[in-house]
Recover the amino acids of this structure.
């Protein structure tokens, strides 16, 4: 099973029709993984080549469909990043 933020699982389970902004890290070919995520109801907002993944939005119910895929490394909420000076 992939490494998925437990709070995200709880929120997605409680709100399957809610929209979630996530970062999905993957193994394998990025183009193939983008197609698989899109087929699973994820809307890719941008590729994140540095971490080999994607920023995406999806419904809570769709998260359960990809959690156990062997090519999914991790899923976490997409949150603002701050520097130490912020």
């Amino acid at each position: 099973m992939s490494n998925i933020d437990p709070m995200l699982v709880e929120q997605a389970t409680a709100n399957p029709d809610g929209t979630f902004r996530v970062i999905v890290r993957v193994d394998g070919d990025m183009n193939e993984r983008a197609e698989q995520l899109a087929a699973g109801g994820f809307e890719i907002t941008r590729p994140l080549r540095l971490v080999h993944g994607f920023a995406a939005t999806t419904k809570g119910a769709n998260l359960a469909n990809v959690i156990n895929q062997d090519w999914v490394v991790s899923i976490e909420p997409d949150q603002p990043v701050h520097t130490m000076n912020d």
Observations:
- The chain is about 30% helix and 35% strand.
- The CA atoms of residues 46 and 55 lie 5 Å apart.
- Helices lie at 6-14, 30-39, 60-66.
- The first helix runs from residue 6 to 14.
